[in-house]
């Protein structure tokens, strides 16, 4: 299918707008696709679907539990519902229905959580979503994806249609910094994208932190010649364990960065794989340090929580100071 | 859809056999939701043996009428129908609740053929039923989705989210039934969290609402026929029932929402069900 979006589009269209456009493109040829929202047609941009396919669009009012239940019933009858609400309401307000109706029944429902992390920073903690990755990745059967920017989001929507089963897609409010120039790269669910090669350490990031990580790696290399590998870990579940083990083996120093509580999110998921790998490494999780976020603009909050470029550079410097004992068997441990 | 006297008696014979199976299943399982299974079994019998369009050889027939048992804890009653139809083997009932069985208290749609939705967490079923009904409209299929709610379950706000939406979409192809057995785990509904004026609530939400005796096949059948004929608004049928109906020691006693029975109590229950059945048959034959 000829769906192509580039960084030219993502400078004009917010990430959610790209999402809705791609969904409309796909729905043109697939009558199973329906869209549902809970009075957030405008905010999540899924309203574009309503303009193109009014008969396949449902706005259930401010009733997230009902939205997820309806989506489950529709999926039971062969439709592919795409729900859209804020990430916080997806993962908290409607969670019982997400858990029982959608994940337990393993239904083909695609859930879009927008305004994720602190991207709606001005709105305060009721609208921040800094626990959703932890919550959603603990749901059996559920695939959890956090795209880095609008272009990657386009790839995610395409992949979501081809993927059978429930999926949670977490995106930010507004525009994301551009990470990808075009959709033409190897995007696969469950496979990390190596954005920068390096053997001194690895920075693993998702969502808005991917751009910060890439910028940090470039600046560090320019300043000191240190080469940081950067992984865009867009799929939190199933996580790319091979890429993680390889990163530990090759670089032995790992930093994770996410716009989310450090407990249970990307950092937690990475830590689980590393701990079970049997390989030791220096490790640091960046994100919200088990705190609710203050109010503010997204970029200011990224900086406050140390997941902007400077914050990541500082963490890299700290991590590089850490010493290791000699380990003669290291090469045999992978 | 008229019920002849012969059909009426046939339904009572069927319901009677299912009531006995429920008691046996509770006995084998060690315990179970006796009260709520017996209160809804007459309505479910009417649906599965007279009203609903199903394929006895294919539980997944695309055009079948759907049934969502929103009060999922009545699974021990529902499963007796699935076994009788032949969607599952009758011997499997003996494994109910046992480790490794496909049959647990709240039936799993992915494991039990004939179950259209996994339920158990209360307040979910009506939304799923609406989703099925909206899918039917979109795909131009004419199946009807029946949803069985518990009355205590209507404490859940999500039920009213679904009710509001059913009215908004005028989803006349979903029929809401409420097993109004007047009791929940911790007591009688009006003592724990009052529901009355219950019918008025559904009316206020935009439903054609009828309250009927949930143990009277003819009354229920007429109410369902009237509901199916309505195209101007969706319908809710409140089934006035007795929790534990037919088992004297349990009937009307909220404490039998869930309970354990031994061989002796099971024998007493079976004897009680026989008397209940004979009384109902006599009334039907006399009518």
**Can you summarize the main beta sheet of chain A?**
7 strands, mixed
Structural domains of chain A: how many: 2
Structural class, from secondary structure content of chain A? Answer: alpha/beta
Please list the strands of the largest sheet of chain B in the order they lie side by side. 2-3-4-8-7
| Shape assignment of chain B | globular
Radius of gyration of chain B: 18 Å
Uncertain parts of chain A: none
Using DSSP, what is the number of strands of chain A?
A: 12
What features would you describe in this structure?
The complex is a heterodimer of chains A (334) and B (287). With 334 residues, chain A is of the alpha/beta class. Chain A is 40% helix and 18% strand. Chain A has 13 helices and 12 strands. Chain A has helices spanning 7-12, 15-27, 47-52, 64-76, 87-93, 95-104, 132-137, 150-162, 209-224, 241-251, 266-277, 298-304, 309-320, and strands at 33-37, 57-59, 80-86, 110-114, 143-145, 167-170, 193-196, 201-205, 228-232, 235-237, 253-261, 282-288. A 7-stranded mixed beta sheet of chain A has the order 2-1-3-4-6-5-10, sandwiched between helices. In chain A, helix 9 links the parallel strand 8 and strand 9 (228-232). In chain A, 56% of the residues are buried. The model of chain A has no long low-confidence stretch (mean pLDDT 96). By secondary structure, chain B is of the alpha/beta class. Chain B has helices spanning 5-29, 34-51, 75-85, 125-138, 157-168, 189-192, 198-204, 217-229, 263-286, and strands at 31-32, 66-69, 145-150, 174-180, 183-184, 187-188, 208-213, 235-240, 259-260. In chain B, the strands form 3 sheets. Chain B has a 5-stranded parallel beta sheet, with helices on both faces. In chain B, helix 5 links the parallel strand 3 (145-150) and strand 4. In chain B, helix 1 packs across helix 3 (75-85) and helix 4 runs parallel beside helix 5. The two termini of chain B are 19 Å apart. The chains are: A alpha/beta (334), B alpha/beta (287). Chains A and B meet through helix 4 and helix 6 of A and helix 4 and helix 5 of B.
């Amino acid at each position: 299918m000829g769906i192509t979006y580039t960084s030219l589009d993502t400078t004009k269209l917010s990430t959610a707008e790209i999402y809705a456009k791609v969904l409309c493109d796909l729905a043109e040829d697939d009558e199973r696709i329906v869209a549902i929202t809970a009075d957030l047609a405008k905010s999540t941009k899924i309203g574009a679907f309503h303009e193109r396919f009014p008969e396949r669009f449902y706005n259930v009012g401010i009733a997230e539990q009902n939205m997820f239940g309806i989506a489950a019933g529709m999926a039971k009858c062969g439709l592919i519902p795409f729900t859209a609400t804020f990430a916080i309401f997806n993962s908290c307000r409607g969670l019982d229905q997400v858990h029982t109706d959608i994940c337990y029944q393993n239904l083909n429902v695609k859930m879009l959580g927008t305004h994720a992390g602190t991207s709606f920073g001005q709105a305060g903690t009721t609208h921040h979503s800094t626990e959703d990755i932890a919550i959603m990745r603990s749901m059996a059967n559920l695939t959890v994806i956090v795209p880095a920017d609008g272009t990657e989001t386009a790839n995610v929507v395409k992949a979501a249609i081809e993927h059978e089963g429930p999926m949670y897609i977490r995106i930010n409010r507004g525009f994301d910094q551009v990470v990808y120039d075009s959709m033409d790269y190897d995007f696969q669910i469950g496979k990390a994208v190596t954005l920068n090669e390096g053997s001194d350490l690895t920075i693993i990031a998702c969502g808005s932190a991917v751009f910060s990580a890439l910028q940090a790696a470039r600046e560090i290399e320019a300043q000191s010649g240190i080469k940081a590998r950067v992984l865009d870990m867009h799929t939190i579940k199933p996580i790319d364990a091979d890429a993680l083990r390889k990163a530990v083996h090759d670089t032995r120093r790992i930093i994770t960065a996410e716009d989310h509580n450090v407990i249970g999110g990307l950092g937690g998921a990475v830590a689980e794989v590393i701990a079970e790998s049997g390989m030791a490494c220096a490790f640091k999780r960046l994100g919200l340090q088990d705190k609710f976020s203050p109010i503010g603009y997204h970029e200011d909050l990224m900086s406050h929580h140390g997941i902007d470029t400077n914050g990541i550079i500082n963490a890299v410097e700290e991590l590089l100071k850490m010493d290791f004992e000699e380990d003669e068997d290291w090469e045999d441990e992978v | 859809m008229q019920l002849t006297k012969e059909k009426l008696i046939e339904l009572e014979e069927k319901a009677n056999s299912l009531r006995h199976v429920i008691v046996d299943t509770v006995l084998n399982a060690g315990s179970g939701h006796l009260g709520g299974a017996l209160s809804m079994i007459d309505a479910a019998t009417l649906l599965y043996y007279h009203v609903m369009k199903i394929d006895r050889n294919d539980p997944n027939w695309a055009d079948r009428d759907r049934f969502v048992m929103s009060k999922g804890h009545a699974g021990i009653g529902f499963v007796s129908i699935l076994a009788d139809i032949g969607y599952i083997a009758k011997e499997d009932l003996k494994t109910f609740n046992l480790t490794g069985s496909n049959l647990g208290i709240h039936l799993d749609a992915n494991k039990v053929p004939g179950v259209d939705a996994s339920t158990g967490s209360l307040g979910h079923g009506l939304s799923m039923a609406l989703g099925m009904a909206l899918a039917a409209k979109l795909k131009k299929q004419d199946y009807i989705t029946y949803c069985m709610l518990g009355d205590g379950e209507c404490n859940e706000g999500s039920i009213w989210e679904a009710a509001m939406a059913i009215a908004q979409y005028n989803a006349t192809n979903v029929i809401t039934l409420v097993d109004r057995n007047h009791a929940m785990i911790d007591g009688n509904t009006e003592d724990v969290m009052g529901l009355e004026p219950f019918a008025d609530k559904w009316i206020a939400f935009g439903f054609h609402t009828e309250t009927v005796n949930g143990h009277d096949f003819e009354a229920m059948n007429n109410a369902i026929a009237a509901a199916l004929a309505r195209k101007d608004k969706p319908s809710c049928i409140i089934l006035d029932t007795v929790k534990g109906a037919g088992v004297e020691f349990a009937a009307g006693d909220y404490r039998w929402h869930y309970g354990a029975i031994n061989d002796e109590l099971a024998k007493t229950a079976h004897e009680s069900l026989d008397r209940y059945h004979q009384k109902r048959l006599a009334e039907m034959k006399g009518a």
